[in-house]
Amino acid sequence: MINRTNSLWEWLDPMWFRWSILRDFEWVNPFYLYLIALLPLLWLLRWLFMYRFREKIEVALFDAQEKPHWTTWLRFLPPLLFALSVGLVLMALARPQKTSEQVDQYTEGIDIMLVLDISESMKIEDFRPNRLEAAKNVAREFIAGRFQDRIGIVVFSGDAYSLAPLTTDYKLLTSYIDDIDFKMIQKGGTAIGSALAVATNRMRESDSKSKVIILLSDGDNTAGNIDPITAAELAKAYNIKMYTIGIGKEGRVPYGRDVFGRPQYLDNTMDETTLRQIANIGDGSFYRVSNNEALSEVFARIDQLEKAEIKETRYRDTRDYYDIYLTWGVLLFLGWLLTKNTFMSNAMED
């Protein structure tokens, strides 16, 4: 990770020569990097040329005088400084860069109320493990797939109860769904009209361009103080779109166990008329599902139908770092020039 400080002395930081930093650069002109590999070869060719063609003076020395002094190694310093300066200038010409990109996603969002039936009949086990738990599972998946949509929850049996207001806190919504059980509402029955009225009341002050109710139930309206059709027409007046899902199989379905642990069965029927009328009034759709997979498919279909367009704004910030290596290259070149006028260089050869 590179943080450019724009300090006058930032080029002194040795981190600029770490392999991890060099590897992460984007090189605009990588051709110059290949030229760096030729520097050792050019140095070798220069040495061979000088060894072959330079003038030599024969000097006779005694063995005791042949021991080299450590300062003789300094003669390699000038060519080394020159090679390093050329390499760093080539790195600067390759133009190392770092580009950071920021993506902002936004959407106008949709307001959605999930209206879940928690009456006793939702304990029927024609779904795994039962109807209510199956509905809770797909509700979690539905919430996880949304982006910046406000979602609320209403539960109902004999009465209707607003469990969560419209919110984008999906983690909180998931925890509310985890806590849903049959003991939340003591009064028995199925108050579909009251549930629609509570959901509409939560959404009536919303200024969202798209408002949706998803109603899931397995029975007919048997409780409450408002007719489902009247409640649907009230929701329609607030431009709320309504999807209804009838959950449950027809015929004999498992419901609990007897004292001997054997499955018990009962005959299940459902009048779809009311749910179909609600969907028609709300310009939505009615779905009848009889297993977990079909329920998941319905929620996935509604999820696609009610997707808001997600818009993206991308910001690209490109920074050059060639000046770091150019500064080092120039300084090393100046150092090479200085050593040219010292005992470390042979002016007769150069």
Automatic annotation (TrEMBL):
Which Gene3D superfamilies does its entry note? von Willebrand factor, type A domain (3.40.50.410)
- Could you list this entry's UniProt keywords, alphabetically sorted: Cell membrane, Membrane, Transmembrane, Transmembrane helix
The UniProt transmembrane annotation reads 31-53, 73-94, 321-339
What InterPro entries does the database record attribute to this sequence? UPF0353/GerABKA_families, vWA_BatA_type, VWF_A, vWFA_dom_sf
SUPFAM superfamilies linked to this entry? vWA-like
What residue range is the signal peptide? none
Instruction: Give a Pfam family name.
Output: VWA
Query: Would the keyword Lipid biosynthesis turn up in this protein's UniProt record?
Result: no
Which segments does the entry list as coiled coil? Answer: none
The UniProt record lists the VWFA domain at 111-302
Record flagged with keyword Transmembrane: yes
PANTHER family registered for this protein in UniProt: LEUCINE ZIPPER PROTEIN 4, SPORE GERMINATION PROTEIN
Would you tell me the protein name for this molecule?
Ca-activated chloride channel family protein
